[in-house]
Structures are given as structure tokens and as C-alpha cells.
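Quick one, C-alpha cells below. Sequence please?
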């Protein structure tokens, strides 16, 4: 299915949202719960899978939904279609502090591999599937697990990452080692593996994880400075213990409750 051609504009700095402009009958597909606002004349519909296929039987829809379930995402996605007259706008917000990265898939041979919670929205026609890592080490120790998301098509897709985003072009044979949680996305030609941190003292006292990702070019990689897991661990660590004072730690306490903390 040919991807819909959509225009967009990014707003904000550390807590961004993307405003997508839809011509009549154009559609964008997004993660459930990512909507910020939309204008009158846009029809919202919940679907199984990613809606990349124009038609298909119940088995195709179940397979598409099952792929999303494997990656830990919701079974459902939401489409937003301009059913009115003239251009309409719909906006999607970042789930936590960071940047929204617009990617035109046709510029990267029609495929992007990303961490499983990075996808935000895309033009209808972009396929959101799963990418199995062939190497067993990546599966057990890759931080994001054995499965990553893959975005395929020739249209625009929007992914989100935490903190500051660094895009790096790798030359053929060039190697980059990255903390497993900091890897956001990579193009299809990048070779991805996991290495153990050498030396028992480094592993135990170095302050980092036991494993890091080794990326070998050619290709393009996107790296984030603040993975959500790291942000959450810092917030939980700063939260006051049960029964402790709520004075100095009141802000952290509020964030702790916001992120689902349980306090008697």
C-alpha cells in the first residue's frame, strides 16, 4: 500500500509534540494514548495491528495484533483520518522528556529498526512489525530483549527518545559501543551485537551495566542520552522511604506517585 503523504511541524524543546497536517482522506496511525489534540473533521478509529494493509481477513488482523502483543505494546492502534473539507491538524505528544525524530523511510532503504517503545506515529501505509535478533547474545542481554520494532515503507514515521538525541553515520567497518538502553534506532545495514564488559572489577564497580551494544557500520544510528529506565530509576531512588518525611522529598514523592509508586 502506498504511504500517505503528510506534512508536519514540531513544537517545543524538551517536551515536544508533533502537529500533523492532513489533506482530505489522508490518514495517520499512532500509538493508543499518544493523542494531544485534533481539529473538527478528523475521524478517530481504533484498529487491530497497524492498518498498513488496505484489506485482509480476520487472520491477517490477528497476526498484526499479535506482533504488537509480542513487542509489549497494546493490541490496538488508532487511526486519524481527515473526513472534512480542507486541511486539518492532529497533534501527538511525547510520553516523557526528550525529542521527537521525524524519519522519512524512503531515505533509509525503506526500513528502520528501533527500540520497542520508540514509535509514536506514522503515515498510513507504514508497517509496524517486529525484528527478531538472530544472535542469541542480543536476545538475552540486549536490554530491549530478543525483539525490537521495525518500521517499513516509504513514508514518514515519528519516533521518540529521551534526553538529547545524537545521530551518527557509521562508515563501513566503523564500530560504536553504546549502553544498551541508549540505543534508539538504526538502519537495516548496521550489524548489532552485545559484548560483555571486560574485567571483573569493571563489571562490578564500573557503575555501568555488564553488557553494551556493539554497532558496526555502514549505516546510521540514533542514540539517546536519557533512557526512560534510567530516568525512572533516578526518580525512585530520590523518593522518600515509606514512613519518612515528606518535606524535602515532596517533589520526588509526587513524581513517585505519578509513576505508579505504592505508598501505605
Amino acid at each position: 500500500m502506498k504511504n500517505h503523504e503528510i506534512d508536519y511541524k514540531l513544537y517545543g524543546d524538551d517536551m515536544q509534540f508533533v502537529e500533523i497536517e492532513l489533506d482530505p482522506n489522508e490518514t495517520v496511525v499512532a500509538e493508543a494514548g499518544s493523542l494531544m489534540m485534533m481539529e473538527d473533521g478528523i475521524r478517530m478509529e481504533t484498529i487491530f495491528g497497524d492498518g498498513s494493509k488496505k484489506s485482509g481477513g480476520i487472520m491477517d488482523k490477528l497476526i498484526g495484533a499479535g506482533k504488537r502483543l509480542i513487542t509489549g505494546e497494546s493490541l490496538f492502534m488508532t487511526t486519524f483520518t481527515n473526513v472534512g473539507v480542507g486541511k486539518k491538524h492532529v497533534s501527538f505528544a511525547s510520553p516523557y522528556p526528550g525529542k521527537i525524530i521525524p524519519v522519512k523511510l524512503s531515505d533509509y532503504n525503506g526500513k528502520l529498526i528501533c527500540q520497542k517503545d520508540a514509535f509514536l506515529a506514522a503515515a498510513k501505509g507504514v508497517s509496524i512489525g517486529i525484528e527478531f535478533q538472530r544472535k542469541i547474545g542480543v536476545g538475552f542481554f540486549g536490554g530491549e530483549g530478543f525483539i525490537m520494532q521495525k518500521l517499513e515503507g516509504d513514508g514518514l514515521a515519528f519516533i521518540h527518545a529521551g534526553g538529547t538525541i545524537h545521530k551518527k553515520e557509521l562508515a563501513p567497518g566503523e564500530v560504536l559501543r553504546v549502553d544498551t538502553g541508549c540505543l534508539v534506532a538504526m538502519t537495516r545495514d548496521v550489524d548489532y551485537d552485545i559484548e560483555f564488559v571486560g574485567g571483573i572489577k569493571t563489571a562490578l564497580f564500573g557503575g555501568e551495566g555488564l553488557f553494551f551494544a556493539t554497532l558496526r557500520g555502514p549505516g546510521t544510528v540514533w542514540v539517546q542520552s536519557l533512557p526512560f529506565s534510567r530516568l525512572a530509576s533516578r526518580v525512585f531512588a530520590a523518593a522518600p522511604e515509606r514512613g519518612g518525611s515528606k518535606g524535602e522529598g515532596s517533589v520526588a514523592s509526587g513524581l513517585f506517585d505519578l509513576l505508579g509508586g505504592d505508598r501505605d
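The CA atoms of residues 49 and 65 lie 4 Å apart. The domain at 7-162 is CATH 3.60.160.10 (Double-stranded beta-helix).
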